[in-house]
Design a protein that fits this description.
Low-confidence stretches: none
Mean pLDDT: 85
Number of domains: 1
Structural class: alpha+beta
Oligomer: single chain
Radius of gyration: 15 Å
Length: 133
């Protein structure tokens, strides 16, 4: 099984949103999850990677409609990132901060949408704002 992980960043800070929300949608397993400074739309239960990838335009459109309805702007990327699969998940888990030494099967940019296998431990790497002075 696969899921589409779709992060987006509100233009204005959202301080009240701190728990995962389960959404009523076509899929029983759709959630919104805070991952500051992002919010992540997770669409789960796809039988193939291709099926999950094909849902990207619909997820993007849903976020855009929601932004209009609530009067809140969002920054969204509309292309999928690819997962890097390390040759040795045990070794990767030992060297990656925050993994508590557990095996890491893949690493992906946490700021970008990605199709993720549900049965693997994937680490989402994000970076804060970059500025030059």
């Amino acid at each position: 099984m696969y899921q589409l992980r779709f992060p987006f960043r509100p233009v204005h800070e959202t301080t009240e949103f701190s728990n995962t929300l389960h959404l009523k949608a076509e899929r029983d397993d759709a959630t919104l999850q805070p991952h500051s400074p992002y919010i992540v739309l997770n669409l789960c239960g796809f039988p193939s990677e291709a099926d999950a990838a094909e849902s990207l335009p619909r997820a993007w459109g849903t976020i855009m409609v929601a932004s209009v309805l609530v009067g809140q702007g969002f920054q969204v990327e509309s292309f999928l990132d690819r997962i890097h699969y390390p040759p040795d998940p045990e070794k990767a888990g030992k060297h990656l901060t925050g993994s508590a030494g557990r095996p890491i099967h893949g690493i992906v940019n946490g700021n970008l949408p990605a199709v993720v296998p549900s049965d693997k431990k994937i680490s989402f790497v994000t970076a804060g704002e970059v500025s030059l002075k």
